[in-house]
Amino acid sequence: MYFYEYLYIIFGILLLGIITIVVLIPSFMVSFDFIDIETTSPYECGFQPFEATRQKFDVQFYLVAILFIIFDLEVMFLIPFSISLNLLTNFGLGLGFLFLIVLAIGILYEWRYKALNWVESK
What we know:
There is one protein chain. By secondary structure, the chain is mainly alpha-helical. Helix content is about 60%, strand content about 0%. It contains five helices and no strands. The chain has helices spanning about 5-30, 35-40, 60-75, 80-85, 90-110. The N and C termini lie far apart (about 70 Å).
């Protein structure tokens, strides 16, 4: 009885597996396996490195990337909230707005401590 409820999911997984096999096998059969000197050179562009490859990177780039991922995922939580907005009770609306307030506080904190600045002004 419960099996019929999952039939569409099982069918979708099987269909995705078949499509994956149908696409991947011919691509492996037709692909070329040769090593080119240009693609194995540093940075895959043919240029020799200008500086040492062990140089330190600025943490700011990683910080901005992590902040983007965090806030992008948190904004994704707003989609179910916005879809079911007319079905929510006052408690649900309060929790949704509390979530938005926490997001706003996080953005203001980052703005205050200049985590979103790319270049420091001198």
